[in-house]
Amino acid sequence: MAKNSLDPLVLIKSENEKVFQQGLALLEEKGNLSHLPGLVECYLLESPGIKRTALYSFLASITKKGIREAWMGLLNQTNDVEYKRQIMNIMWNSRLDFSPYLVDFVVWSKEGDYQNTLECLTLIEHMEGPFSEEQLLEAQCIAQAHVSSMNSESEQKQTLLSELLKVLEQLPSSEDLFLD
């Protein structure tokens, strides 16, 4: 069978390390963004070990045009907070700039547990901006409303959301570019 007719996602599911590596090499050579959901699924189903680490590294290294939008599409397609958290962890390690999606990450920071909020905060801290005044105000209002409405049983998360609010207040707005 010719190499170009092989499905790389089938190859990376193989128990054979050599076949797995061939699948990754094929994805690197000829993969496209349509492979992302299947690749993430393989990563999430893989037990901790060498293959999972290799999948994680591969996912975080993808820089093809449109990858930010593809990652955001995956996040928007699920309500599973754990799935989102793991995807956000990969996204943070990708070192891509997700500045256009600031408000989305602030909204998601309210979901799930402390770890989920931490992943969102980490991504937000690494956003380069600049941000529109409207984007910053919306993000700050969402974070402030959530901090105000939280109960005392989630003190750690409330502390983290308060930190998020401080970070949002320090992000550069596009209007700041014209001041000097």
What can you see in these coordinates?
This protein is mainly alpha-helical and about 180 residues long. The chain contains ten helices and no strands. It has helices at about 10, 15-30, 35-45, 50-60, 65-75, 80-95, 100-110, 115-125, 135-150, 155-170. The longest helix has 17 residues, at about 135-150. The N and C termini lie far apart (about 65 Å). About 25% of the residues are buried.
What assembly state would you assign to the polypeptide chains in this entry?
single chain
Order of helices and strands: HHHHHHHHHH
Helix-strand makeup class: mainly alpha
Mean pLDDT score: 88
Q: Uncertain regions: pLDDT < 50 for 5+ in a row?
A: none
Integer-rounded radius of gyration: 19 Å
User: What would you call the shape?
Assistant: elongated
Question: What fraction strand?
Answer: under 5%
How many strands in all?
0
Number of helices: 10
Cα(first) to Cα(last) distance is 64 Å
Largest sheet: none
Helix % is 55-70%
Fold blueprint:
Layout: H1 8-12, H2 17-30, H3 36-45, H4 50-61, H5 67-76, H6 81-94, H7 102-109, H8 114-125, H9 133-149, H10 155-170
Helix pairs in contact: 3-4, 4-6, 6-8, 7-8, 7-9, 8-10, 9-10
What descriptive keywords fit this protein?
180 residues, mainly alpha, 10 helices
Summarize the structure.
This protein is an all-alpha fold and 180 residues long. The protein contains 10 helices and no strands.
